[in-house]
Write a structure and sequence with these properties.
This protein is an alpha+beta fold and 101 residues long. Helix content is 38%, strand content 27%. A 4-stranded antiparallel sheet has the order 2-3-1-4.
């Protein structure tokens, strides 16, 4: 991870399929990895985080949808506890898990 990048999670609950698919596409477009149907993980620099935030604000309905962008430092990320299945095995490869965990 580069010095100016932040590790982050993007997690959302979006009612409309069209908006949900567009948010997923925006996350993928920024290089984030899908780890569950509505959860992405990856590293972005500050400008990319701001761009993603603005894009998502335009895509969701703020009255009914929710979207979280959680930045984490590496020390905090190492403290993440994964329970149960943790990741959608159809979406996450062993290579991706090795990259972050």
């Amino acid at each position: 991870m580069a010095a100016n990048e932040t590790l982050l999670w993007v997690i959302y609950d979006i009612v409309e399929d069209k908006a949900r698919n567009r948010v997923a596409k925006a996350c993928k477009g920024k290089g984030l990895y899908r780890v569950q149907k509505s959860a992405f993980l990856g590293t972005l620099n500050r400008n990319q985080v701001d761009e993603l935030k603005i894009m998502c604000e335009d895509l969701i309905n703020c009255k009914v949808d929710s979207l979280y962008i959680f930045p984490l430092c590496e020390d905090d990320f190492k403290k993440v506890k994964l329970l149960g299945q943790a990741f959608d095995k159809k979406l996450v490869s062993a290579e991706l898990l090795a990259k972050f965990f």
